[in-house]
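User: Here's a structure from my thesis project, written as structure tokens. My advisor, Dr. K., wants to see whether a designed sequence matches the one we expressed. Can you design one independently, without my sequence as a hint?
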């Protein structure tokens, strides 16, 4: 899986991100020096967790043959600060018609989405710096 970010402005912080042929803009809010052209990277992290959780719950329900209706996941994110860990608060909303057993199974499976497991587990990074060829004019 590959994501590429390229700056799209001379003075601001906006970047175009490309993933599998999809393009979208990531930027910082104006109070953080950006132009608010798109969500910031931390918002995308929260969106990744919310959407992955919702998709995982829906896939599980479909696999079980449950017609649970619309599932909504809200993610509130607080970045780590000195002495305090990063915090994610998920709210899972399912239709009232879901039974208690379905509700409990969906709650359990929600914590097994790939993004949740990634954030909850050990993460390793490697970085390298390369010189890019000058852009053709």
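Assistant: Designed independently from the structure alone:
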């Amino acid at each position: 899986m590959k994501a590429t970010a390229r700056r799209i402005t001379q003075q601001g912080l906006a970047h175009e991100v490309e993933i599998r042929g999809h393009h979208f803009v990531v930027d910082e809010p104006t109070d953080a020096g950006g132009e608010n052209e798109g969500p910031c990277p931390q918002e995308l992290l929260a969106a990744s967790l919310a959407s992955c959780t919702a998709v995982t719950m829906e896939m599980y329900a479909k696999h079980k043959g449950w017609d649970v209706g619309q599932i909504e996941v809200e993610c509130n994110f607080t970045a780590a600060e000195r002495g305090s860990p990063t915090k994610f608060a998920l709210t899972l909303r399912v239709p009232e018609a879901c039974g208690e057993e379905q509700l409990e199974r969906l709650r359990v499976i929600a914590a097994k989405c790939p993004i949740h497991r990634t954030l909850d587990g050990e993460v390793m990074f490697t970085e390298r710096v390369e010189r890019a060829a000058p852009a053709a004019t």
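When you compare it with your expressed construct, this may help: The chain has a mean pLDDT of 93.
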